[in-house]
Amino acid sequence: MGRRTNKSEEESGAIDLTPMLDVVFIMLIFFIVTASFIKEAGVEVNRPEANTAELKKNANILVAINSNNEVWIDKRRVDVRAIRAHIERLHAENPKGALVIQADNKANVETMTKIADAAREAGVLDVSVATENN
Questions:
Q1: Is 115 inside a domain boundary?
Q2: Which of 103, 130, 128 minimizes the C-alpha distance to 45?
Q3: Is residue 84 part of a domain?
Q4: How far apart are CA 30 and CA 35, in angstroms?
Q5: How far does the chain reach from its first CA to its final CA, in angstroms?
Q6: Domain contains 83
Q7: Judging by beta carbons within 10 Å of its beta carbon (0-12, 13-18, 19+), is residue 75 exposed, middle or buried?
């Protein structure tokens, strides 16, 4: 006599993975929502050296100025007159974030001042300039 197994016995022994998948998806959503994304500038610059350089932790808006005084935000070249709109959009995504200006050694100070003024007008009070530490 052979032993017969019912279909219900096989199904009762299976492990239900649905609750585990639910927990994994909830954790994934939690980490995505709480992550702070940094908007890269999109161009390499030769930063000036400074003796008083400090590490900035909460910088999430990076604005780069290359040696030709071209402004780059979020890997795109931006017209100087449209900087404020871009900074307002990025600041709305993370109101606690800071703005860091990455200016090239040969960049014009006037361009850097325009970016700092646009940031202050957009409501960003924490504006700093990236430098190389000696």
A1: yes
A2: 103
A3: yes
A4: 9
A5: 87
A6: yes
A7: exposed
Q: CA-to-CA distance for 125 and 26, rounded, in angstroms? A: 35
The number of distinct structural domains making up the chain is 1
Q: Taking the complete model, does pTM exceed 0.70, yes or no?
A: no
Short-list 83, 116, 84, 122, CA closest to 100: 116
Q: Encoding tokens for residue 79?
A: 């017209």
pLDDT band at 13 (very low <50, low <70, confident <90, very high): confident
In terms of C-beta distances under 8 Å and separation of at least 24 residues, what long-range contacts does 114-117 make, across chains too? 114/80, 114/83, 115/63, 115/65, 115/71, 115/83
Angle, alpha carbons 41-112-132 (nearest 5°): 65
Provide the H-helix boundaries in the chain: 7-13, 18-34, 83-93, 109-121
